[in-house]
Amino acid sequence: MVSFDDAANLGVRTIEATHKVNGKYYKWFLFAGLGLSAYVYSLDGTTTYNYLAFATSSFGHHSLISTIQVAQSIIIAVGKPVIAKFADVRSRGSAYLLALIFYAIGYIVIASAGNTATIAGGIIIYAVGLQLLMQIIIADITTLKWRGLVSSLVSTPFIINAFVGSNISTSILTHSTWRWGYGMFAILVPAALSPLIVTLLWAERRARKSGLITKPDSLPFVRAVMDFTDRLDLFGLVLLGISVTLILLPLTLSQTAEGHWRNASIIAMIIIGGCLLPFFAFWEVKFARYPVVPKRFLSNRTIVLAAFIGAFDFISFYLTYTYLFSFILVVKPWSLLNATYFSQTQSVALTFFGILCGLMMRFVHRYKYILSIGLTIRLIGCGLMIHSRGANASDAEIVWSQLLQGIGGGIAAVASQVGAQASVTHSDVAMATAVVLLITEIGGSIGSSIAGALWMNIMPARMAKHLPFLSQNEQAELFGSIVSVTQYPRGNPIREGVIQAYDDVMRTMTITATVIAVIPLLLSLFMSNYYLGDSQNAVEENDLRDMDSREGDKDNYPIDLDTTVAKK
Fold first, then answer.
1. How many CA atoms lie within 13 A of 520 on its CB side?
2. Which CATH architecture has domain 4-233+289-539+553-566?
3. How many CB atoms neighbour CB 481 within 10 A?
4. Could you read off the pLDDT of 337-379 as tens digits, one per residue?
């Protein structure tokens, strides 16, 4: 038996043992399971996004889309370290099973929701861990030179489902209801993920029976639970989640609250959130035995920069994307199907050029300058959207603004993630990936909250300006539901007034997003530039090829160009 402290890396030791006792067919089964789970995950992403506007509108709360997305992003953010640590302490298979349970329950809650709050609750429950776990498993089994390509290939179904998913969501909204659109995934996801989970659990069981994995000493139940929560730093994660939530949610709720910014509850939320944030930092530095962000990560320039690049990129992205589907439905004379196709433009471009980026890194063996090029393209697309945001732009202009953002975003996402994973040991890869995505998702929640604040605080005034012939109640109805807006045809004075109001708000959002998009580009210039070879990472001697073929191959010598230190 080994000490209980060794359980911290039990999941890592388990996945390494499975590679030793299971043959090459195990990897093929693993890749097949990943492919199937990636497909259903992409089908989810290309359909459910379109239901939220109609789900919230059915309860007269269309403006609360940003509030829901803020809460969702925060839960996703704080949940990623929990799932990553669970995957390290227990195993990859058990972590997948836990994430699946949350996923299914969340969609059941949404499908049966009787109000907007329940929809928000279900969205918060389901959004835990699946994307992160796919990237962790890929990092476990791939070398650095193939990492970018393989991690981007699992997104390939987004290209297919941009069209398949659009037709499905359109048919459901036309012939059924958004409830069935959400509810069907409570059936599809367990069915699609079962092969992957069975493969992982079977391989882990076989590795344990081989004797390569020694279970840690058992502890009394209460102490085991306390030790486990300590390793997860649940107190720190709760502090972080509450503080960020209390700071950001008032931005999206102030306009609907009585007294607006003078509302005592709004003021109290901001003050308490502002006080909890430094308390969280104090807890992490002084008391946390296993901090959310390990201290060794804070001195890792690549991880820090990758996290902030992701955060600012997500702030910029969600500023324009949060209300984009609603905006297009209102300002463009497109059918629901064509509007849904358009909403997937960035996803298709992001996926396709993410794959090209991974292929390029396979032969170039570097990622830093590829990352900078991607962020430059992303900035150009964002800037183009200031002029070509919809109301007065040609169809080609607005589509190209989304294509360019998708091209740049796909390149940047793959390059920054591979860089972060290259800079840590195998035992840290899960947590490093989770920390980068934690900061990135918090950036997404900030972007959604800013979008919500602009929408909630500017839109009513813009509607009053462009629709002076309507009463306040009529304006409020149009503000609360896109269904109420789209019932008026193009050319109708009411529809045209709403279009002008939407256009004014989106202009402010796109200008803000473009300014923020400059920051990640500047940060990318200071990234390390590790050599991407045949190792699992760039800081250990851990060639993943057959041992007989490693001698004399230059891929065994990952180099950080910024330090010019060769690691043999």
1. 34
2. Up-down Bundle (1.20)
3. 21
4. 888 888 888 888 988 898 888 888 888 888 888 999 999 999 9
Helix axes 234-253, 65-89, angle to 10 degrees: 170
> Crossing angle for the helix pair 429-466 and 472-480, nearest 10 degrees?
150
In this structure, the number of other CB atoms found within 10 A of the CB of residue 504 comes to 17
Report the alpha-carbon distance of residue 527 to residue 378 in Å, rounded: 18
For residue 412 the two structure tokens come to: 């940047």
Q: Output the furthest CA–CA distance in the chain (Å, rounded).
A: 81
Residue 334: C-alpha distances to residues 148, 163, 328, 341, 390 (Å): 36, 16, 8, 10, 11
Alpha-carbon torsion (568, 555, 565, 300), positive or negative: negative
Angle between helices 185-209 and 24-57 (to 10 degrees): 150
Q: Following DSSP, what letter does each residue of 288-326 receive, concatenated? A: -SS-SS-HHHHT-HHHHHHHHHHHHHHHHHHHHHTTHHH
Three-class secondary structure of residue 535 per DSSP = strand
Q: Is 417:359 a contact under the CB 8 Å cutoff?
A: no
Rg of the chain over Cα atoms, rounded to whole angstroms, equals 24
Nearest to 505 by CA among 447, 452, 450, 455: 455
Is pTM, for the whole model, over 0.85? no
Which region among 427-436, 464-473, 550-559 has the lowest average model confidence (pLDDT)? 550-559
**Angle of the 116-126 helix axis to the 65-89 helix axis, nearest 10:** 30
- Is-contact 152 355, C-beta < 8 A? yes
* Per-residue b or e along 186-207, where b marks 16 or more CB atoms closer than 10 Å to that residue's CB: bebbeebbebbbebbbebbeeb
Contacts with 99 (C-beta within 8 Å, 6 or more apart), sequence order: 83, 128, 129, 130, 133
Write out pLDDT tens, residues 279-304. Answer: 888 888 888 887 877 888 888 899 99
Q: DSSP 3-state helix, strand, coil percentages of the chain (rounded to 5)?
A: 80, 0, 20
Percentage of the residues of the chain whose pLDDT score is greater than 90: 9
Instruction: Tell me the C-alpha distance between 382 and 408, whole Å.
Output: 10
